[in-house]
């Protein structure tokens, strides 16, 4: 292991202040880098659907000192109830039995809680620039000239894109998203709605072939619900990406004849001011860097919500990238080591979709019955085995600091 030399990168621009960005900033600051984080939103983003931190990622947040904060924010969901087309119970399980997580170790927290905890660890140590984003990148022997949408221009030794699945940094560096996107055949809408059913710390999921509707109560009966509508769609609806009205219309048509409480959920979607619509997909790239620019988290290897591992890959990937930059003499060697040491972990977790990660959302009647039989089997055998992919990487010790 070598220490960072005088020829190594000293100034780093990170685009995106969600999960991977602040994590990377924390570790780079610890290793002596001068870090700037640019974020197009006006502040760290709160709210959002609950997310998981599992396996190797738990060790990352422990080493950052925020594990107790996240443990205090852990959503201890009591039960996961699956419903048939008429709303009758199919099975009632502990959530860990479905996710392959380890009770008492793995965490589920509000996305805003995790974002806030990460931001608080580093907000006073690095430069954050909100309400701005990267417009163009111009690489040369001495660094990367960056022009921001605000018109400002600055030069950095290295730029890292941590700006999500629809990364503008990746687009500016390598071209359109479509060449790296693997569509998984589903569209989904998430939003919050009133808790008209009086649910408390539980999740209900209704299914018919190719359609699912879920209500997630992360709090008590007086708190709003997270609603989730996920449906099979063979062709990716690219034309809907920036048209919220068309997105709502598509969802409403898809669920027009649905039973149970789905009509109420769709009505709430039309009234929601926090609707997020997207497709289930992965980002798969032959390389995660080009020249002095690298990608991390969803920008480089989004696994999709179907794996439940997006947050964990972002945390682990940021840790591994920072460590590589701190222990190699130049960015070329650092980026190569980051990819060499992290790619297998990413590949295993992305492959969860191929190994049953989408099993909660069957697209045929036969597949739905097989899934329901599997769920009834889990009720009869509640002891579960942790998903090996979640902990497939043993986190190396942090790089030495001088």
Question: Which helices and strands, and how do they pair?
Answer:
Layout lengths: L10 E5 L4 H11 L3 E6 L10 E4 L2 H9 L2 H6 L6 E5 L5 E5 L1 H5 L7 E4 H12 L4 E4 L3 E7 L2 E6 L4 E4 L1 E4 L6 H7 L6 E13 L8 E7 L2 E7 L7 E8 L11 H11 L7 H10 L4 E8 L5 E2 L2 E3 L2 H4 L8 H18 L3 H20 L2 H5 L7 H16 L22
Parallel strand pairs: 1-2, 1-11, 2-7, 4-13, 11-18
Antiparallel strand pairs: 3-6, 4-5, 8-9, 9-10, 12-15, 12-16, 13-14, 14-15, 17-18
Characterize this entry briefly:
With 402 residues, the protein is of the alpha/beta class. It has helices spanning 20-30, 56-64, 67-72, 95-99, 111-122, 168-174, 244-254, 262-271, 298-301, 310-327, 331-350, 353-357, 365-380, and strands at 11-15, 34-39, 50-53, 79-83, 89-93, 107-110, 127-130, 134-140, 143-148, 153-156, 158-161, 181-193, 202-208, 211-217, 225-232, 276-283, 289-290, 293-295. The strands form 4 sheets. The protein has a 7-stranded mixed β-sheet, with helices on both faces. A 6-stranded mixed β-sheet has the order 7-2-1-11-18-17, with helices on both faces. Strands 8-9-10 form a 3-stranded antiparallel β-sheet, covered by helices on one side.
């Amino acid at each position: 292991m070598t220490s960072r030399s005088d020829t190594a990168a000293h100034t780093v621009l990170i685009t995106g202040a969600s999960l991977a960005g602040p994590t990377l900033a924390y570790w780079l600051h610890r290793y002596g880098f001068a870090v700037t984080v640019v974020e197009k939103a006006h502040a760290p983003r709160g709210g959002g659907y609950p997310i998981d931190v599992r396996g190797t990622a738990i060790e990352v947040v422990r080493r950052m000192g925020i594990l107790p904060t996240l443990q205090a924010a852990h959503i201890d969901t009591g039960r996961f109830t699956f419903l048939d087309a008429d709303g009758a119970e199919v099975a009632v399980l502990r959530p860990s039995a479905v996710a392959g997580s380890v009770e008492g170790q793995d965490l589920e927290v509000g996305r805003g809680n995790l974002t806030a905890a990460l931001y608080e660890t580093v907000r006073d140590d690095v430069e954050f620039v909100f309400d701005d984003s990267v417009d163009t990148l111009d690489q040369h022997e001495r660094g990367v000239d960056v022009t921001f949408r605000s018109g400002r221009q600055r030069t950095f030794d290295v730029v890292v894109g941590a700006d999500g699945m629809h990364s503008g940094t990746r687009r500016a560096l390598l071209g359109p998203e479509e060449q790296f996107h693997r569509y998984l055949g589903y569209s989904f809408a998430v939003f919050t709605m009133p808790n008209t059913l009086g649910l408390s710390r539980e999740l209900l999921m209704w299914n018919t072939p190719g359609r699912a509707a879920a209500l997630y109560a992360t709090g008590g009966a007086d708190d709003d619900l997270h609603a989730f509508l996920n449906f099979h769609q063979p062709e990716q609806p690219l034309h809907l990406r920036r048209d919220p009205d068309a997105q709502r219309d598509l969802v409403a048509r898809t669920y027009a004849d649905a039973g149970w409480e789905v009509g109420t959920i769709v009505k709430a979607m039309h009234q929601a001011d926090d609707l997020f619509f997207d497709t289930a997909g992965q980002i798969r790239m032959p390389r995660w860097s080009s020249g002095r620019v690298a990608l991390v988290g969803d920008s480089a290897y989004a696994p999709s919500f179907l794996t439940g591992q997006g947050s964990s890959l972002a945390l682990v990937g940021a840790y591994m990238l920072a460590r590589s930059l701190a222990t190699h003499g130049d960015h070329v060697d650092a980026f190569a080591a980051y990819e060499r040491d992290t790619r297998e972990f990413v590949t295993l977790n992305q492959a969860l979709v191929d190994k049953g990660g989408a099993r909660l959302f069957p697209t045929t009647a036969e597949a739905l019955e097989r899934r329901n039989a599997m769920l009834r089997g889990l009720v009869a055998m509640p002891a579960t085995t942790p998903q090996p992919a979640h902990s497939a990487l043993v986190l190396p010790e942090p790089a030495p600091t001088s």
